[in-house]
Amino acid sequence: MNKVLNTAFFWRLSLLAVLAIVIINCTSEKYKESTDETLNITGYLENNTEQYSMFLEILETTNYSTFMNTYGTYTLFLPTNQAVQNYLNEEGFSSISDIPIEDLEDLAKLHVLEERIETTSFNDGKISTPSMQGQYLITGAVNIDGSSNITVNKDARITTSNIEVGNGIIHVIDKVLKVANKTLAKMIDNNESLSIFATALKETGWYEVLDKPLTYDNDSIPSYLTVIAQSDEVFSQNGINSYTELEDTYSHLNNPTNPKDSLNLFVAYRIIPGLNYLADLVGTSTVLTKAPLEVIGIKLKRDSIVLNEETFNGVFEEGVAIKRDASDITASNGAIHFVDDNFFIKKRFPSPVYFDPADQPEFRQLSAVFRKPGNYASLNSSELSEINYEGSYDLTYASPPIGDRTGRGWHGDVLELVRFRTGVTNNLEFTTPVIIKGQYKVWVSYRASDRQPRVKAFFNGQELPRIANFSEYGNTELPERVLESQGYKRHIYPYDNAFYSRLMGIINVETTGRHKFMLQSTEYAGYNTWLDVIEFRPVDMDQLYPKFESGGDGLIYESDIN
Amino acid sequence: MRIKITHTILVIFALLTFSCDDYLDLRPQDGTVRQDFWKTKEDIKAAVIGIYSSMLNSPPSVSDRTLAEYLFMYGELRGDMIAPGPNVIDEQTDVITSNILPSNSITSWATFYRIINYCNTVIDLAPAVLEEDPTLTQEQLDNYLAEALTIRAYMYFTLARSFKDVPLKLEATLSDEDNFQLPVTPQQQIFEQVKIDLEKAESLATEDYGNIPENKGRITKHAINAIQTDVYLWTGEYQNALEAADKVINSGNYSLIVATNNWFNTVYARGNSSESIFEFQYTPQNLNPFYNIFLQRPQFLAAPSVLEDVFGVDYDDPENKDIRGERAAMVPGTNEIYKYTGLNENERKALQNSDTHWFVYRYAGVLLLKAEVLNQLGRGAEALEIIEEIREAREAIQATSQNVNPDNKNAVTDYILAERSRELAFEGKRWFDILRNARRNEYERLDILIAVAINSAPPSQQQSIVNKLQDPNSHYLPINEYELYTNKELTQNPFYN
């Protein structure tokens, strides 16, 4: 028995051994023992010393090579040895160790961003993340002898881009980036072609403002400024050949330091708060200036940027172009651009704006629908460039058939909301047409019906005092001047009491330009809501006339009726 | 006992060795090996039909985009008629804004070379079947070869227009020992090869398969002539281009369909009309990829300027409209691309019926190519006549008509380009039209390309884009980094270094 067991045991054992050998043979695999062999930034430089040893030396001298070898997400603009050598020659240093250590630190930090940025997210202006030195780098592209490259700070060309390393990304550049260490004021002062403008800065006291180093306020917003400079040549084209002539032309109080003096305003109007490269400017339609509440209108016209080009009351006003090639100059506390003609604050008086909320560019394109009775079209928020709202329902452009009461508003059309309430459509925000600065009364008119909400209005986020009840039908009995004093009016002619207009309050439009006007429903709505006209009438203007032609495009003046 | 154990061990060993053996069998489980194939004419036919079906959709084993999607993206993204839709991916936006990196997957040419390899296989192996199968006639073989040669030529033509210099492989890849390490061949030589292949194919091809779907869905002599017109325009051989175009036009097989309410349905939704020369034959069993990318999860929209600037809007009379615009190419307001999803003016197709074809060449396109040729030959007046003929057939509106001096070559070119943008909107032609006209005579008309960029670039990137486009190398796509990694002989387009 014992023997049998032993034999069986022996066999089993050998069987196991054989199996084990067979199985091990089948699964022999080689495991990689390291997890990652990707080089970090410093490692990459060490492996490519024939090209990048000098920048590596800069990193080592400044003791930055260690952190550039640690985990993180960096972007390095890496100058080649040739680039660093050219820099040394230009600056008159014989070796890297000759450069003062603080300057070298700044220089090294200027080449590093603390975020991984591929060239695909570059635009014509600044990179969204500042360099570790604090200054922003600007990007662009240039074509030299037929071949194009992406550039950094205007003249350093990227020769190899988007090299992936373990802790970030490297772009190789053919020139060392330089720290801008002069202020706006100094740069303008040092530029011989800007002598008149520089003198004007000094005489008006703005020189000191532009000469202040960069500071950060309590919200750590930097004190960058952008200057639109004007060369002596441009001045002389406009008949101004010296500072004295400039002062004679503009200074009406004979005291340029007085902020109310026109010359002071002339200068202040050329200073824009914030760091605005041209790519930033083309993204906005207006910018505020240091001249109190005065704005500059900006328009991209094909490939040129023009300032203050607008059509006001049907009159086209030609703008002033920016000199693109010369502009985008970086100073330690801001950026400088140049214009090719003289410009100044436009004096304008408040004029009424009759804003038809149904007149949206996307609806206007639908020529078969727009203002053609009996037609409707629906678009959603993402398709309408000048309306924003909460809710996923479409807005409808409605031009009801002739005879339909809803078609008796101005132009015979209305903007229709399925339900004006939270959950369907609410916080309906319009971009208004250009409104000139001044005080205005705001009237909202609607097509009344039952089960309509009460509606609040907001101008640039500020709530207007009155509330409109959209289920209120027009009063046809009271004299219209009495009604007006109560904040109502019968705004269309001939009148239909399904349409009614409500005074929402008085607004102070501080800057000339396009603004945000929002309507908010405060309660439940059980039926469609229709908007006709939103009027912005200067406070000193007649608030009743002209009225709007019911079902037509005309304006009806008091004299037309009597 | 011992015997029993010995037997058990034997059985286990046998099992182990058998199961280990499976992977040694090299026969594919989902196909036929070459030794068993290429015996009969049916085998050739199956292989040729396989080429066509690989153009419609990728085989199940790979997951890349379909050829039609690449043709759309290569032909439209860099033009000025497309805007990113809500479901666009970053890589597509980067192509639209000329921010293309070699890592961008849209630059993968795998689909093209897969189809080229299918063509090469037919060209290499089909002739031997003549000896195996006595029922195969020389004419049948010639026809099949013509189809493979033409499709290969069209693939290379598209690659050379998109990437400039690309590797030229003319033999089938049949085993792992084949040399995959191929350097790029200059664009000009690729064009030369394309011309040779097309000429040979023309002499071998048939004019008529006996039924309409095959005449429009397979390569005919006239489809070859249409491609030849295009190729000769790229290489600047205008007399040859004119001859090729005239072969198509004088064949009498094609005509413009009059503008009625059915026009869109006939030409696009149903396809294979008398305007069609060669189309990808999607069917309800083999759906096109467009329903998803244009309607359900739109990656692309028509650019906002297209309705007004391309087709024109008559604000006074909404009934007066170009039949190619509203509810044909696009939907006004939403700017949805409608050409591939619409059924008629009012309804869209249902998902399960989304079979609108991809239009490789249409008659009107060839007419406009001929206009371009005539203009280059100094016969501007005849070119303008062709434009007028098409405009009349399409009820083009006054707002888009141009009063052009026939002797002003540049002005006629601009008018032809504008008409092509209306006629061939979203058919994968726009960028190639711009590039072909811009690069003619050593980039004499680079201004066309720059103007397009200025109008369509995002304002904050406009200057960079314009400066990049000054470099002709930037007009072509980079070689994808995966290809560079696997094929060390390749050299990247210098713009992308």
Automatic annotation (TrEMBL), chain A:
> What domain of life is recorded for the organism?
Bacteria
Could you list the residue ranges that cross the membrane? none
PROSITE patterns per the UniProt record, alphabetical: FAS1 (PS50213)
Question: Per the record, a Pfam family?
Answer: Fasciclin
SUPFAM superfamilies under this entry? FAS1 domain
Q: Where is the FAS1 domain?
A: 39-177, 181-343
Q: Which PANTHER family match?
A: FI19380P1, PERIOSTIN-RELATED
The identity of this protein, by name, is: Fasciclin domain-containing protein
UniProtKB/TrEMBL annotation, chain B:
- Residues forming the SusD-like N-terminal domain are 87-233
Query: What is the first-listed, main subcellular location in coarse terms?
Result: membrane
What does the UniProt keyword field contain? Cell outer membrane, Membrane, Signal
Q: A Pfam family in this protein?
A: SusD-like_3
Q: Which PROSITE patterns does this UniProt record tie to the protein?
A: PROKAR_LIPOPROTEIN (PS51257)
Would the keyword Disulfide bond be found if you checked this record's keyword annotation? no
InterPro entries the UniProt entry points to = SusD-like_N, SusD_RagB_dom, TPR-like_helical_dom_sf
Localisation? Cell outer membrane
Q: Which GO terms describe its cellular component?
A: cell outer membrane
Q: Which CDD domains match?
A: SusD
Q: Where is the RagB/SusD domain?
A: 337-496
Family designation:
Belongs to the SusD family.
* Name of the protein in question: RagB/SusD family nutrient uptake outer membrane protein
